[in-house]
Amino acid sequence: MGSGGGDGDGGRQAQPLLGKLSESSSGEHLVKRTGTVWTAMAHIITAVIGSGVLSLAWSVAQLGWVGGPAAMVFFAGVTAVQSSLIADCYISHDPERGVVRNRSYVDAVRLYLGEKSHLFCGFCGFFLNFSLFGTGVVYTLTSATSMRAIQRANCYHREGHDAPCSVGGDGYYMLLFGLAQVVLSQIPGFHEMAGLSVFAAVMSFFYAFVGVGLGVAKVIANGVIMGGIGGIPMVSTTQKVWRVSQALGDILFAYPFSLVLLEIEDTLRSPPPENETMKTATRTSIVITAFFYLCCGCLGYAAFGDGTPGNLLTGFGFYEPYWLIDLANLCIVLHLLGGYQVYTQPVFGFADRHFGGAAAEVPVLGARRVNVFRLCFRTAYVAATTALAVWFPYFNEVIGLLGAFTFWPLAIYFPVEMYLKRNKVTPWTRQWLAIHGFSSVCLLICAFASVGSAVGVFGSETS
């Protein structure tokens, strides 16, 4: 996946449909697609439900009891629509090459929109790859936060909840996470990582359940449901507007997985048609995701009201039982191991297809064959994400801000334009107006959320 790698008619971006077998983009080997709706759901849930689910209570606290749940349901619907549009772009019919597969997001944009402007592919490829790389850095940073939270939980248990309990060692934790990723990165591709995604999805369910359970226990202990209709009151209207903007952005950006959707769809077996299986997996996963988001967000706000922390586990809204907090944070780290791979394998796949050579014999391993380029490139890639996380621990704010500004083009505009092109929708018809109306509404919301994200980042830097 990337902005480079061939022009619109080089044949790299899509290959002939050969039943269950299809050549890779480089034509080096055949890939048997065995994925099902269950493996697709595992990939999706691993990609979508991150530790950010525990931060949604803060967003609900800003929006209140009406706005918070309504925003979660609305953005779940937006994600369902845009993911369905992308899913239909996997198989395309070319007059010269016949039925072809678009194995990545950039491949689909190049095929459907490349003839309109080469800037489309350049913009899409650059920001897509930067977002994927940035996600790897953010996951490395987040893993260190959860590991540090385990230390703090143990300290609070020993010394009391008011103890300073300042712990360090973030760089050490990031290096451990990076070493684990060096090993996991040798998984050949999406087709072989279903087991890792299932494991990571189970871990995400566990810590989400812990957050829900602790929220229920806190509400029962309080004997009252905290919070209000309008959310946390602010000193000024301007401050409230920015908080609402940030909260909407947090919820909006917590759902989509468009960056890796076509890679996931490329693992599915056929029949039934891949887009039908993908749509079923997508809708089911979004319902599950929305359920957990609503539970964690609403129960967290009900438990803490105006004092809702930024993260229910790492922000220490809960202190006891400390062993459960430790276990939940450990599950976050284990989930991030799989989540990192979901967002990194597309980059590895692109590099393998366009730059990877044949497997070379390594005498130390006897008869086993190792692709030297794959080993070196993937190790260097993981080292780069780890090094940037260690040297620039505020990178997650940068990538969050960039994600806010690129969300609409990548998640809404390109899917809409590809759908219109693929289905040859006549301009100014009812369908054309409805789809462009959907895109325009999303643009306004994304612009509002992006400004709020910018204010939040620069405000935190100057405070």
From TrEMBL:
The keyword Transmembrane helix applies. It is found in: Membrane. It comes from the Eukaryota. GO terms for cellular component: membrane. Keywords: Amino-acid transport, Membrane, Transmembrane, Transmembrane helix, Transport. One of its GO terms (biological process) is amino acid transport. Residues 33-453 form the Amino acid transporter transmembrane domain. InterPro entries: AA_transpt_TM. Its main location: membrane. The chain crosses the membrane at residues 37-58, 70-91, 119-141, 172-191, 198-221, 285-304, 324-343, 375-392, 398-420, 432-458. This is Amino acid transporter transmembrane domain-containing protein.
